[in-house]
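Hello K.,

You asked for the raw outputs rather than the summary table, so here they are, unedited. I folded two proteins back to back in the same session to keep the settings identical. This is the first:
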Amino acid sequence: MIKLIKLELRRNNIRTYVIASIIITIVMLGFLYLFSYAPKLEPTDKDLEVFLGYNNLIPMFGVLNMTAFCVLSAVMYSKFIIEEYSGKRSILLFSYPVSRKKILCSKLTVVSIFTIFSMIISNLIIFLIFGETEKSMQLVSGDFTASIMLQVIKITIVMAFIAASIGIIATGIGFIKKSVAATIVSAVLLASLMCNIVANIASSFTVIYIFGLIMIFVGILFSINLINKVNLMEVE
């Protein structure tokens, strides 16, 4: 499996996705400052009160960053799986003296691990920078303490796994039509749904964790279904 993972990394230009992750981090850092400063622009706007404290700000920002990495994950899956198993390209994959299951699992592993780790690193860098600037700027009510950073870490890990799971679910949907567009659109729609859910339960971390476990379970089911479909594919 490790050799197959190394092969996938050589066959696909992972540097492109690293650059994309860096760009996402820079843009999301800007959004975090925008969210934090928004209540000061319109003090009477009750809708902006959700950004006043860290308990709401952390999950709200976490799900926004998750949406960006969901799209990145969908783009990677489109390249690694949808395009690879479309048309004559699948003939080359099926000619390898390795089981179809192992080849697909290596692709799923590469994209999932990249999505999870890149989002965790991105979010932690963003909040570490934000935490340092908060010592002098005080955009958000309350001090940025170690317990706040611990909340950031917990939410980030959950959101990172949700992002990877949504990417797999979107790939399963796009695989039906062998459509890159369907994969990316599905990821955007699923991430948008997640944003709406978190917006309503932002202060309930327990519910977010439970929902995260459900998404991971669904992602595993879609992975199994995807493996079964590839095993039953006929070479065109």
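The second followed immediately with the same parameters:
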Amino acid sequence: MAPYDSDSSQGAGRRKLGRYAVPVAVVGVAAATIGLVPALADSGDPDLPKITAQELIEKIAKSDTERLSGTIKIHTDLGLPSFGDAAAGLTGGNGGEKGSASADPRDKLTELATGTHTLRVAADGEDRQKLSILDDASEYSVIHDGADVWAYDSASDQAFHAKAEQKPDEGAKKRSRDVPATPKQLTDEILKASADTTSFTVDGTAQVAGRDAYRLQIKPKQPGSTVGAVTVSVDAKTGTPLKFTLTPASGGAAVIDAGFTKVDFSRPKASTFDFKPSKGTKVTEADDLPKQDHGRAGRTPSATGLDGFDVLGKGWTSIAELKLPGGADAAGLASGSAPDGMPADAQKFLNSLGDKVTGAFGSGTVYSTRLVNVLITEDGKVYAGAVTKSALVKAADAG
């Protein structure tokens, strides 16, 4: 839970191509953005001392909250179908294949990109964290306790184990953080990408999880972004973000709404982070995974595909420009056709997102969600970002 670093900057990176470039781009960039419950009702309108937007941002940055526990409701509506079997096919997940680990956080946490979920979180400094996804009859948990990281799926009675000191590409600790889930993580992602492209205002007060809070409203200044506004409810006492809501420029329900329904800033019990697999539990060790699985295990969907990308523009209208590898079916993807061998559910999902476009660049297909759009051109280029279709076409024309 590091405070916001105002000197953070964006840059180009290197990525490897996964099984299906378009689904990976759509789902992965969306996950990174939420890196980016029906709206959680705030109760009351507490009378708090006046504060400026700059002072409130500084309050978030100075927040030193390292210990807390609580329950979070998160609702994500990107306009995507529920991630189930189709998601496994899209992201290259192995499902129940031999040698795979169904408890691997990289596969399970992708579910947070759609639908409504209840999370239970706890933290005690940098070396102890726990995140649990609660279902009606099961629970999935990722536990970091010192040198060990465990993930456990009660539905399948399977566990995944890794050492926290492993390299980022090999460690489950990083995987558990790849999909931002708490209001704090979501807020940090937005503040890092803001700079002079953003308008900040204080939009009154609220009560969240029984705590008095200020509401910080964040809006893009740049035209062409699909983000309408982000509202963060900030605990008046600790400066900890308690609720995060992202609404799209197109209007309608929030794309992301995540907030505490219960929160306690006292130190969690040490037993919270204890985990020992029961007799009969299938345990997969990270070091025992096949080499190909081990290589993919440290990457989120957004990092599994797409070899070397450039970032065009800045701030809210940043667009990632990538080149599909030689073996990819660029013509088929550009025309809106699913790659051969893709599962039927995944093909249906992909075809439902496509919208053919033309421009000076030639022709291609834009695959859309409520937040992220991806353009694949007939010459194998990919343009992706939280921007409008016209912004992608303009970028492709310029390229």
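The radius of gyration is 21 Å.

Happy to rerun anything if the numbers look odd on your end.

Regards,
P.
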